[in-house]
Amino acid sequence: VVIKLMQKKVQWERERKTRNDFDLDPKYVVLTLPNVPSDTEIADAVKEGRGGLKAIEEEFLNDIVLGKYAIVMGLGPRNLLQIFYQEQPKNDAVREILRQVFEAVKHLHEKNLMHGDIKMLNIVRLGIDNGLRLIDFDASARIVPQGGEEESFAGAK
């Protein structure tokens, strides 16, 4: 389980809206988990430092302010940057990586959604099938036809 804590409510709302409104396929995206504590319960736990959070914060997160807005999702044990540094994939494996990334981006674009922050850290491999998935949708934006009046999630027209 990964708990992504965000400081800015607008980014958290954008990520939640993207995940809720676009019917994203788990073949391409790490989904949020069902049956997790409520937003209020998570915010209270962060504020109070419950569940070992206080000790982690004191030991490892000096001078970092934890966000109180949370996205709870399944764990992608390794991101693409780690894969390249630690596994040093050969050409055929790189081709497969690129194919999976392009398929995930195509899936988003077919849903009229732009990720907005694709980078190696936002592509993770799941142990379920060793497939790559996208994470981090707080910079996402709806794709609208040129001249369209609809506002994107990022606030641009």
TrEMBL record:
Domain Protein kinase, residue spans: 1-157
Domain of life: Eukaryota
Gene3D superfamilies: Transferase(Phosphotransferase) domain 1
InterPro entries: Kinase-like_dom_sf, Prot_kinase_dom
Pfam families, sorted: Pkinase
GO molecular function terms noted in the UniProt entry: ATP binding; protein kinase activity
Descriptive protein name: Protein kinase domain-containing protein
Organism for this UniProt entry: Skeletonema marinoi
